[in-house]
Amino acid sequence: MCGIVGYIGERQAYPILIEGLKKLEYRGYDSAGVALLCNGSLELAKSVGRLAALEEKVGQVVPSGCTGIGHTRWATHGRPSDANAHPHSDCSGEFVVIHNGIIENYLPLRNWLQSLGHRFCSDTDTEVLAHLAEHFYNGNLGDTMRKIMAHVHGSYGLVLMTSREPEVLVCARKDSPLIIGLGEGENFIASDIPALLKYTRKTYLLNDGELALVTKSAVRVENAQGERLAKQVFHVKWDAVSAEKEGYEHFMRKEIHEQARAVRDTMRGRLTEDGQVTLHELGLLPERVRALHKIAIVACGTAYHAGLVGKYVFEKLLRIPVEVDIASEFRYREPLLSPDTLVVVISQSGETADTLAALRLAKEKGCPVIAVTNVVGSSVSREADHIVYTWAGPEIAVASTKAYTTQLIVLYLLALQLGAWNGTVEASEIARIAAALQELPAQIDGLLHKEELLKDFSRRISAWEDAFFIGRGLDWAVALEASLKLKEISYIHAEAYAAGELKHGTLALITENIPVIALATQPHLYEKMWSNVQEVKARDAQILAITMESEETKSQGADAIFTVPATLPLLAPVLTVIPLQLIAYHTAVLRGCDVDKPRNLAKSVTVE
Ligand code: AGP
């Protein structure tokens, strides 16, 4: 997501910070800033936009100093702006922080600090950290960091610097990566390895709950109790290009593997300890929800497929009719919209032209509009009435993966929140679903560990120019996404069919050995689904089945079976899509395709 660089040594820090941040540009960001210790005081420079804008702002008179921190921000709390860019400073200007992650309890902390007289200059969650440092400082920066860590909830890769102790930088990590680069008479801090490679390949990788006191000649890593930890030096062997991808061959595979973390981040702070949902950012009045007669979900591509899952979930939990439209169709079909229709637009980028136009049409008709998006400050987020962010982090590969799974999580949370407000979902049912949601990250991790098994599926598919995905109910919705994934990156013609519909035409295309990927995770549809599989099997197709662990024995007769862990049938799409993304990925690799940048496609489609 955001990028962190810190330097302490004998050289001028500014060029090292800028150089390091440039190496993190691939991660995506919307503003940047640096802070340097110059003659005993802190000097800050920040700018919205690219690093070039920061450099232009700084001009010829670059801040001098041999200790400094720099940051590229990808907005979460507060839109991209100069004021919201990091580093953030306390009231005295003696403490500065840069931070990756989310401070979940920043609002109560901010209120408390304001009641003590602290003045805030940004809308960010991060700024509380600078004021906490000012509040807790007792002459020892390590102690101060420990107190901060004890008071904040959430995720952080965090660096703190103060003019009161100019010879030290302190950093800490929880759920957001942080690395120390070890030099000779100088040391570095970074959120990712590419920022360090020009200077050193010797690193310490911080673990959750650890903090490090970094001077130019030493690095002391401690646990939360202040005990010194003996860290192993990790020697980086990757070249610069693989380092950007954290050692993965492609961004797509890296992003597939980030999904356990991403899904966890999407739920972070949105499920209460007693298993209820709190989408406090939504700002939609419960009375308005109770008056709704229809929900319209509008999106494109993968986001549209997430919307199809949303239809099943909303209708089941809210008992309100739901229409799902492809945005480019919605705009031109004169949809029946009125103020009692809730319109939910879904867009990873928040810039898709057709989705934006649909949003504007819905607003013109007086509908309340909720945006589900990944990008703070995007057009969709600025124009919608209500926003729920997916917090997936930047997605670089053209093929959407973590955007889809995090969109699904938001749709589940949204359905539970709206269901609680309109009284269609009992608190006990919400708690049951919430408990299953919380198991998903570990289950995704488990699936990713079984990646090798899927290479056989890919090998079977890669030899063909056609493939079919079939399923019923929610499985059909996931089949549509799986077929899009396969066709866009491997260029294999793939079709997704509602399994019961095959015999109305498509069955004519089934020939000997053609790969048919059958999804079967919905117990109430299992018998029907398996009858459809037999129809295909009878035409000698090759059946590759994806099913739930509990249903495995029923899939006999399939040529290959892959199981996902048992979960509530409603949540199965989050798990079934993972092997399907991996199958598409490995098939494309086997066919020698440009996985991250498939032909004819762009990441963000800002034209009609
Ligand atoms: C799928 O892998 C694509 N990247 C594409 O279908 C994408 O989901 C679609 O263009 C919508 O983009 P958005 O979510 O940024 O609006």
Feature tags:
globular; 21% strand; binds 2-deoxy-2-amino glucitol-6-phosphate; 6-stranded antiparallel beta sheet; 608 residues; 8-stranded antiparallel beta sheet; alpha/beta
Bound molecules: 2-deoxy-2-amino glucitol-6-phosphate
Low-confidence stretches: none
Strand order of the largest sheet: 3-2-4-1-10-9-11-14
Instruction: Work out the helix count.
Output: 19
| Terminal CA distance | 29 Å
Sheet with the most strands, sense and barrel status: 8 strands, antiparallel
Overall mean pLDDT score? 93
How many beta strands in the DSSP annotation? 24
SS-based structural class? alpha/beta
Indicate the topology.
Elements (H helix, E strand, L loop, with lengths): L2 E6 L4 H10 L8 E8 L2 E8 L2 H8 L8 E7 L14 E2 L5 E6 L5 H10 L11 H10 L4 H11 L4 E7 L6 E6 L4 E4 L4 E4 L11 E4 L5 E4 L4 E4 L11 E2 L4 H5 L6 H7 L1 H9 L18 H5 L3 E6 L1 H18 L3 E5 H4 L10 E7 L5 H12 L4 E5 L5 H5 L2 E4 L12 H21 L4 H22 L2 H12 L3 E6 L2 H17 L2 E6 L16 E6 L5 H12 L4 E7 L11 E5 L7 H19 L18
Parallel strand pairs: 15-16, 15-17, 17-18, 18-19, 20-21, 20-22, 22-23, 23-24
Antiparallel strand pairs: 1-4, 1-10, 2-3, 2-4, 5-6, 6-7, 7-8, 8-12, 9-10, 9-11, 11-14, 12-13
Helix pairs in contact: 3-4, 4-5, 8-14, 8-15, 10-14, 10-17, 14-15, 15-19, 16-19, 17-19
The structure holds 2-deoxy-2-amino glucitol-6-phosphate (AGP).
2-deoxy-2-amino glucitol-6-phosphate (AGP) binds next to α10.
Question: Would you give an account of this structure?
Answer:
With 608 residues, the chain is of the alpha/beta class. The protein is 36% helix and 21% strand. The strands form 4 sheets. The protein has an 8-stranded antiparallel beta sheet, with helices on one face. Strand 20, helix 17 (474-490) and strand 21 form a beta-alpha-beta unit. It is globular and about 80 Å long. The chain starts with a strand and ends in an 18-residue tail after the last helix. The relative contact order is 0.08. 2-deoxy-2-amino glucitol-6-phosphate binds at residues 300-303, 347-349, 352, 355, 398-400, 488, 604-605.
